[in-house]
Write a structure and sequence with these properties.
- This protein is mainly α.
- The chain is 74% helix and 0% strand.
- Helix 4 packs parallel to helix 8.
- The model has no long low-confidence stretch (mean pLDDT 93).
- Keywords: DNA-binding.
- It comes from Streptomyces flavochromogenes.
- InterPro entries: Homeodomain-like_sf, HTH_TetR, TetR_C_31.
- This is TetR/AcrR family transcriptional regulator.
């Protein structure tokens, strides 16, 4: 296997783009190579098979979706409140919209995980780690609500963004921020 970490990352980013554009069925070594602009056969030098690409894509998506260092520390400066939860949720939605390709790739991975137990295991581990970190951060920061509050916010935002990215006209009478504010006001108790 080739060991150029920058090339490997570029191939994973290309794989995410292919997932977002063509779905899991379109994810082939040839498609990844074409998207990355590298010679045919390059991907097969970095990944033993398609399953390895899918597994590593899950990790790469979360690397790309993780805020830059210091962003969360700055965001958490105001006192814990429902308004802060709204602002944090709004920032998450903005970050995911900026990385739309990653989020669409994640949807494709979720669907593919239904058919691939090994991918399901890997994706569950990654998603559970992210959810657990969000719950822990929420509780440690003294934000209003409990672990179930965070779970409900997660469910609501996941569904809302699924609609927003896949059928954008569905809620065209409401701005995304307005919908997020409604979700937060209905789920998060007053502090």
């Amino acid at each position: 296997m080739a060991r150029n970490p920058e090339r490997r990352t570029a191939l994973l980013d290309a794989a995410i783009q292919v997932l977002a554009d063509d779905g899991a069925r379109g994810l082939t070594f040839r498609a990844v190579d074409a998207c990355a602009g590298v010679p045919t056969g390059t991907s097969s030098n970095y990944f033993r098979d398609r399953d390895q690409v899918l597994s590593e894509v899950a990790d790469r998506i979360f690397v790309r979706l993780t805020p830059e260092p210091g962003v969360m520390e700055t965001a958490m400066l105001p006192a814990p409140s429902r308004a802060l939860v709204f602002e944090l949720m709004r920032q998450v939605a903005q970050r995911l919209a900026a990385e739309r390709t990653c989020y669409l790739g994640l949807f494709e991975l979720r669907l593919e995980a239904v058919r691939r137990p090994e991918l399901r295991t890997q994706l569950t581990k990654v998603l559970r780690g992210d959810l657990d970190a969000n719950i822990q951060g929420h509780l440690e920061a003294g934000m209003p609500g409990d672990a179930d509050t965070v779970r409900l916010l997660y469910f609501a935002l996941t569904g809302l963004l699924l609609d927003h990215f896949t059928v954008p006209g569905l809620h065209d009478d409401r701005h995304l921020d307005d919908l997020i504010e409604t979700v937060v006001n209905r789920i998060v108790p007053e502090a």
